[in-house]
Amino acid sequence: MRMSDAIAAYILHMMETSSDGSAELQRNELAGEIGCVPSQINYVLSSRFTPQQGYLVESRRGGGGYIRVSRIRLAPEVSMLTHVVNSIGDTLVASAAQAIVQNLFDGGFLTEQAARTIAAAVSDRAYHQIPVGQRDRVRADMMKYMLTAATMS
Amino acid sequence: MRMSDAIAAYILHMMETSSDGSAELQRNELAGEIGCVPSQINYVLSSRFTPQQGYLVESRRGGGGYIRVSRIRLAPEVSMLTHVVNSIGDTLVASAAQAIVQNLFDGGFLTEQAARTIAAAVSDRAYHQIPVGQRDRVRADMMKYMLTAATMS
DNA sequence: TTGATCTTGACCTTTACTGACCAAACGAAT
DNA sequence: ATTCGTTTGGTCAGTAAAGGTCAAGATCAA
């Protein structure tokens, strides 16, 4: 198992077991327990706990410093999908697209069938006929059209 | 025996003997064992483990990367979708795509949200960045991937 | 012969990991 | 209040470790 996955799992577990659903940790201590360099914690936070994936990360340096990770509170349905659509730029990489779909599904904004369908439509394998340099643009378009349509249900 | 057949057989064997019916492999390692170049694994996956043939391929790059191949479980009630997927050729015009979606929705094979989503993804508007002559090919691909994904649960 | 399928290798993109160096917050001494 | 050492976390560039793409050539089958 990748070390990054172990770190992510650890943080997720902390979030699940804590009373308020957030994880509060100390960077050096966690790095010591898991056995990695401290900066890898930052790598995991920035690659797997981004706002687009539905997480909020706050931190403080100095004595008594901490890192707190919590799930972003989800807004009402229509405004959530609209907000996500508006946040998508002209291009969208496959991994970011998958994260968006996962987050919307977790938040209950997409049915399982719709989520699976969208995930398939934005996966890299669906674009093999399209030149590599253009895929992310088409994907962004596709995602916006689909989420907009999903909103109207 | 062709090398591609050997690779396909190897993957199939992995799937049969694994506990969950899926094969998880590392591209370079498998290429080394079988004695072919790594990229041939991709060729085999894209020619013999397509959604139309009933397989789902997922992969991840980077350290600790992997390729996972699994067989799509087909429930009796979704044989309709399977049949539709198989009946789609290499190209698919927008009007035919809309008709297919409408029929599947009417038949109760798609939820309303999924139907709206798919309809958006195969509508002409979604393809304005793609050269006209290529749209129907991409659309056919997109439709097959989405319907295949929609059959899974 | 000719079109489809197979094979290969050079080059590319993404993801993971590490460590040196940086920046901020705290607290005690002045 | 200022200074300064200590304790945190932050950044970034480099390296390594995967898988992906593409086009050219080889082989096979009709």
Would you give an account of this structure?
2 copies of one chain form a homodimer. Chain A is built from 7 helices and 3 strands. With 153 residues, chain A is mainly alpha-helical. In chain A, a hairpin with a 5-residue loop joins strand 2 and strand 3. In chain A, helix 1 (3-17) crosses helix 3, helix 4 (77-87) packs antiparallel against helix 7 and helix 6 packs antiparallel against helix 7. The longest helix of chain A is centred in the last third of the chain and has 20 residues, at 132-151. Chain A is globular, with a radius of gyration of 17 Å. The mean pLDDT of chain A is 92. The first copy, chain A, binds a DNA duplex (30 and 30 nucleotides) through helix 3.
Give me the number of helical elements of chain A. 7
Q: Helix proportion of residues of chain A, in percent?
A: 55-70%
Global outline of chain A: globular
**Strand-residue proportion of chain A:** 5-15%
- Major sheet characteristics of chain A: 3 strands, antiparallel
Strand order, sheet with most strands of chain A = 1-3-2
**What's the total count of β strands of chain A?**
3
Q: Spell the H/E element sequence of chain A.
A: HEHHEEHHHH
Mean pLDDT of chain A: 92
Summarize the entry for a quick read.
2 copies of one chain form a homodimer. By secondary structure, chain A is mainly α.
Pick out its properties.
homodimer, 153 residues, mainly alpha, 3-stranded antiparallel sheet, 7 helices, 10% strand, DNA-binding
